[in-house]
Amino acid sequence: MSQIFAVTSGKGGVGKSTVSAGLAFAFSGLSKKTLLVDMDEGLRCLDIMLGGDRSAVFDLSDILMGKDMADAVYKVGESNNLFLVPAPSEVGKIDAFAFSGFVREAEKEYDIIIFDFPAGMDFSLYTCLPEGALFLTVAVPDPVSVRDAAAVSEKLSGLSCSSRLVINNFKYRLVKRGIFRNIDDIIDSAGLRLLGVVPSSEELAFLSVTHRI
Q1: CB atoms < 10 A from the CB of 143, how many?
Q2: Region of residue 33 (left: phi > 0; alpha: psi -120 to 50; beta: else)
Q3: Is residue 114 pLDDT above 60, yes or no?
C-alpha cells in the first residue's frame, strides 16, 4: 500500500511545488517508486521545474477520461524511481469520482504518491484521498502566510485530515533582527504540528528555475 502525501498552502508563492519536488526526489533516492501528481489545473508548473514540459503530451485529465495511466506518467530525468503526472492545462477537468479511481489504481503501483494541490481554500478533492494520507501545509515565516496556514489548519481539522506544518524558506538572520517570528511562534499561530523546516537556499532557487531541481 502506498504512502500518500498531499501538499497544500493557503497563500501562493510559498514554494509548495518546490517542497513537493524535493520530497519526491528524496523518496526516490531511497529506492521508493515515487509518483508526483500536479493538481494545479491551468497553472501547472512541475513539468517545467522537472524539465519534462516538452515531452508531456497527456496529463491527469486524459487518465480520468479513460486513457491508460501509463500514457500520462512521465519518467523524471535519469531516475528509475521518480515519475510525474502533469496537471490539466485547462480548469475544470478533474472529476472527483474519476480522481478517486485514479488514486486507487496508483496505490497499486507506487510506494509513495505526492499530490501537489493548488494554493487556496478549495478542498473539494481532499476527501478523495484515503484516510491514511498526510497533508503537509507549507508556509513561509511572514505573517500573512502564517495566518493563511492557520486557516488551512482549521479546515483540515474539520475534514478530519491528518496534517503537519512545513516551514519553507526560513531565514534565521531575519528572525534575529525581529523581522520574522521564530519557529515556536509560527507553530503556535498556525495551529499545526511541525514536520520540518527548510532553510532558505539561493542555490535551490536557481536550480528550480534552470530545470535541474
Answers
A1: 11
A2: beta
A3: yes
